[in-house]
Specification:
Elements: E1 2-6, H1 9-26, E2 31-34, H2 41-52, E3 62-65, E4 67-69, H3 80-87, E5 99-100, H4 111-123, E6 129-132, E7 154-157, H5 160-166, E8 179-182, H6 185-189, E9 193-198, H7 204-212, E10 230-235
Parallel strand pairs: 1-10, 2-3, 2-6, 3-5, 6-9, 9-10
Antiparallel strand pairs: 4-8, 7-8
Bound molecules: fructose -6-phosphate (F6R).
Fructose -6-phosphate is lined by residues 35-39, 66-67, 133-135, 139-142.
């Protein structure tokens, strides 16, 4: 695992954008794993700017997002489908049919939808480069602290502190969905390379436990230490405890 610390969140996100740009330039038909939440927003802004300047072509790229809430319409601005359209997909030339998010609407108990998502990732040749944020409790995707690491895409019950943290995107905490469908830790570990962005002092504890603590399913991001190609991009606030 490599860790890089930048003065500001903007600079950490710029570094992530440069890695994604390099990946797409080197392999135009890259399979990218994408994340939502506030951490990657500046990274997507930089990628959009590079595309608009004619520097980056998404026409051959395939994307797989980590997760989606269950129980809200994809047209709801709080859905991850809407988030991705607004922050990236509507502004670059990625083909609509090359965009994938887990099928929360068809999820049911998660079994079939999860297996279909895993099969689609495999059929695309696996993920070349996966972008991650990290929850204050150490979650990646929506893999919450648990007694075991999960394998494939599955339905999750969101942790109470995740519901509280994500309430800022909704009108009230009561509106935050209690369930989501998420790639599993196995899906993330199968990606050829992983870049995690963590910014802000509220991530300092999760970063410290992931980088310095034991590998423990109670801190899901700690498993990344056993992955051969992982880069943590941090601002100084998120790196404060290292
Ligand atoms: C989002 C995701 C989550 C977020 C994490 C951090 O697709 O899978 O793991 O990355 O909750 O969210 P922010 O960046 O909003 O603090």
């Amino acid at each position: 695992m490599q860790v890089q610390v930048y003065k500001t969140a903007e600079k950490a996100c710029r570094a992530a954008a440069m890695l994604f740009a390099a990946q797409i330039t080197k392999k135009p038909d890259s399979v990218l794993g994408l994340a939502t939440g506030s951490s990657p927003v500046p990274c997507y802004r930089d990628l959009v700017a590079m595309h608009q300047q004619g520097l980056l072509d998404f026409s051959k790229v395939t994307t797989f997002n980590l997760d989606e809430y269950c129980g809200i319409d994809y047209a709801n601005p709080c859905s991850y489908h809407a988030f991705m359209d607004e922050n990236l997909f509507h502004h670059v030339n990625v083909r609509r049919e090359a965009i994938h998010l887990p099928d929360a609407a068809g999820a049911g108990d998660g079994g079939a939808a999860g297996r279909a998502y895993d099969a689609a990732i495999e059929a695309a040749g696996g993920i070349d480069l996966q972008l991650l944020g990290i929850g204050c409790n150490g979650h990646i995707g929506f893999n919450e602290p648990a007694s075991d690491f999960t394998y494939g895409t599955h339905i999750v019950d969101l942790a109470e502190n995740t519901i509280q943290a994500n309430a800022r995107f909704f009108k009230s905490e009561a509106e935050v969905p209690r369930k989501a469908i998420s790639m599993g830790i196995g899906n993330i570990m199968a990606c050829r390379s992983v870049v995690l962005i963590a910014t802000g002092e509220n991530k300092a504890d999760a970063v410290y436990r992931s980088v310095r603590g034991p590998v423990d399913p109670q801190v899901p991001a700690s498993i990344l230490r056993t992955h051969p190609s992982v880069l943590f991009l941090l601002d100084e606030a998120a790196a404060a405890r290292l």
